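Colleagues,

For the teaching module next term, I've prepared a clean inverse folding example: a structure given as tokens, and then the sequence designed for it. I'd like students to try predicting residues themselves before seeing the answer, so please don't circulate the second half yet.
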């Protein structure tokens, strides 16, 4: 998949095998996984598998999470973007917006910046009609990002023994905000 998105500070591009050390730094951090089931990875092979999983979705669905690269330093920041999600809400496959950043990049507006580019890509390039996102109720940062994006809280549901907020935004809502 040949995707390349640019924001003032970031590049979002397809995930590559060479991102494995960055994925490992990200996903081996227990704080990053605090609201993600508390199971940080222990071996870089798990990161290599995660990359293969994303690349499989590129091939099969033409969509998938994108690596975030800091323009200034060229460093791997984490990932953001869309995913065709079939597990989280078993009876309702949907297009999911997500993000996960290395801790040193938290608190700088980066998740919001990457997510805005991801929504724009989803609505304008992929022509999706609606995009959803889920966040653990206690994950203050993630809930704040989703609210800042203009996503609407439409439901709550239990996932991995934790209550999650369920957000949605439609093309029409997004266009109304962007104009
Ligand atoms: C959640 C996460 C992506 C937020 O990234 P970020 O780049 O720090 O978020 P932003 O800087 O864009 O913050 C957006 C808003 O949320 C607020 N915020 C961010 N983290 C916060 C926290 N832990 N507690 C309270 N508010 C927080 C910011 O202050 C900002 O609000 P403001 O614009 O009013 O100042 C990041 O903490 C992360 O990667 N966490 C681990 C993975 C994760 O939980 N992913 C989400 C799964 S649903």
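(Answer key — instructors only)
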């Amino acid at each position: 998949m040949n995707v390349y998105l640019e924001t003032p500070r970031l590049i979002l591009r397809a995930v590559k095998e060479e991102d494995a050390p960055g994925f490992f730094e990200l996903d081996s951090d227990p704080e990053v996984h605090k609201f993600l089931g508390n199971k940080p990875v222990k071996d870089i092979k798990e990161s290599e598998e995660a990359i293969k999983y994303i690349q499989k979705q590129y091939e099969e669905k033409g969509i998938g999470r994108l690596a975030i690269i800091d323009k200034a330093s060229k460093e791997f920041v984490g990932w953001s973007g869309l995913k065709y999600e079939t597990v989280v809400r078993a009876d309702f496959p949907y297009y999911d917006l997500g993000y996960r950043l290395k801790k040193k990049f938290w608190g700088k507006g980066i998740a919001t910046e990457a997510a805005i580019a991801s929504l724009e890509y989803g609505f304008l390039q992929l022509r999706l009609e609606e995009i959803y996102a889920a966040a653990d109720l206690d994950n203050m940062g993630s809930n704040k990002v989703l609210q800042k994006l203009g996503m609407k809280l439409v439901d709550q549901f239990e996932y991995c023994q934790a209550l999650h907020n369920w957000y949605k935004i439609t093309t029409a809502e997004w266009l109304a905000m962007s104009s």
